Amino acid sequence: MNEEILSLYRAYNVAMAADDTTALDRLLAPDFTLTHMTGYVQPRAEWLGELQRGTMRYFSSAEDHVAVTATDDGWRVVGQNRVVASIHGSGKYEWPLNTDMMVQRINGDLQIMGGRRDDLLTAKVKATPMFHVKH
């Protein structure tokens, strides 16, 4: 099962780096939210819209480490990637990101329920929850 979860995580990163909102639409649960390193909790439709408009552009995502842990209602995936992105008109930068997400099987399909991204330099000192799941 962990291989299936890893494949989902990797498909998410490939789709994000390609700004492939069609693929992301299939991978993300309807109530998905992404909590950015700023603490902003961004709804699914808003994030996908920013990708479509190009206000958030991702160019690549290189995986350094990823771990999958089973939970009572799904899986927790924690991965460290080096992501090259341009956000809201900023320059193109490489960010060492820690992504922490919850995955559940919904109607037979694996879906990403929510995620949180932190800069690896600050991820270890965050006291806030590492993921946000809207029920």
UniProtKB/TrEMBL annotation:
In this chain the DUF4440 domain maps to 5-97
> One matching Pfam family, short form?
DUF4440
Annotated InterPro entries = DUF4440 (IPR027843), NTF2-like_dom_sf (IPR032710)
Q: What is this protein called?
A: DUF4440 domain-containing protein
Organism the protein comes from: Levilactobacillus parabrevis ATCC 53295
The beginning of the lineage is: Bacteria, Bacillati, Bacillota, Bacilli, Lactobacillales
